[in-house]
Amino acid sequence: MTSPPPGADEPAETPSAPSTPRRLPTLVKALGALVAVAIVAVGVIDAAGSEGGADARSQLTLIAPAAAGGGWDGAAREMQQAMRAQNIVNNSQVVNIPGAGGTIGLSQFAGMTGDATTIMVMGITMLGAININGSDVDLGDVTPIARLADDYDVIVVPADSPITSVDELMAAWKKDPKGFTFGGGSLGSVDQMIISQMARENGMDPAAVNYIAYSGGGELATSLMSGTIKASVSGYEDFVDQITAGNLRALAISAPAPVPAIDLPTLSELGYDVALTNWRGVVAPPGITDDQRTELEAIVTEVVESPEWRDALQRNNWSDTFTPGNGFTEVIDQQSEFVRGIWADLGY
Segment Disordered: which positions (predicted)? Predict the structure, then answer.
């Protein structure tokens, strides 16, 4: 059981219980607002890209297809900081185009054919959103530049929960599937994918999971501590402060291998075949030349080799998985097929 589709990137716009009815006028207004934001953002991009025939070294726009403060926005701004500190690009700007798990931004971006002065941050959540929203545009319509980094989800429960391990969580969940409510990010998010995989490992129907989508870690933590939801799977950085403060109990992380900076077991180590990372990457519009693609790859390479980016990796507990060019194309192809399988299990 899932909540209505949200209009945000890695987050939904508001938490909504599975039983909440859809309100068509409200939905139309929300979509209208998102479209208006997208139109304004594209105008900003067009104005920037047309100034004096700018190339990527003189003027580069980074699109975050999400609201300010989200994971993609954070990655874009960390890149921008490195570009400025190292004079990699003369002038850079971050433009937010939020909505529908990144697919509104993707649709606008895919129409910027041949524009080598604009790149977009994206990730695995966009693959889920493409499936769940039935998007007419997918990542085959853009140009892969590089995978940047991965971060990991953590499985948490309230500190006063009787659940103290993943095994206990699985047992309680299986005993009362409808009454055991999970919270996470937007429909299509890596959070929901991990919970779906956990359900499959628990001998349960992923489509029957009682899942509520939230707009971010703060709301999730509040709902956990108030008892609105019984458990959550979301980004480690979303919860680390509450874990450290003793308000939430962390049970495991979703990483494929132990993460030295995070003192938690992986689901794989605990015997569950669940290992999914929240990777983020960069793409360019379609129709750019080979030379332009090479130049954008060079710019991104300089970013990830900078001390500012190395600091960002450490501060955010991101793993360095930099993979440029054709290697990233292979990652997208493999992950797209994998994600389609997850959403087929959910009936999409």
Answer: 1-23
Kindly report, residue by residue over 190-215, the tens digit of the pLDDT: 999 999 999 999 999 999 999 999 87
Please give the C-alpha separations between residue 319 and each of 152, 255, 314, in angstroms, as whole numbers.
9, 10, 8
Please tell me the distance from the alpha carbon of residue 232 to that of residue 253, in angstroms, as a whole number: 12
CA distances from 308 to 51, 146, 194, 198, 314 (A): 28, 18, 31, 36, 10
Rounded to whole angstroms, the Cα distance separating 211 from 192 reads 8
Q: Classify 159 as helix, strand or coil.
A: coil
Cα gap 276→10, rounded to integer Å = 15
- The half-sphere exposure of 207 on its side-chain side, counting CA atoms within 13 A, is 8
**Gap between the Cα atoms of 184 and 286, Å rounded:** 32
Instruction: Using DSSP, state whether 289 is helix, strand or coil.
Output: coil
**CA distance linking residue 154 with residue 172, whole number of Å:** 18
Q: What's the predicted TM-score (pTM) here?
A: 0.84
Tell me the domains of the chain and their CATH numbers.
Answer: 24-150+278-345 (3.40.190.150), 153-253 (3.40.190.10)
The reported pLDDT for the residue numbered 217 is: 77
- Helix 290-304 and helix 71-85: axis angle, to 10°? 90
Confidence check: pLDDT of 2 > 60: no
Confidence of residue 136 (pLDDT cuts 50, 70, 90): very high
Sheet holding 248-253, edge to edge: 210-213, 181-184, 231-235, 153-158, 248-253
Structural tokens at position 157: 């429960």
> CA torsion sign, 70 to 261 to 233 to 218?
negative
What pLDDT is attached to residue 70? 85
Q: What is the pLDDT of residues 224-256, one digit of tens each?
A: 999 999 999 999 998 999 999 999 999 999 999
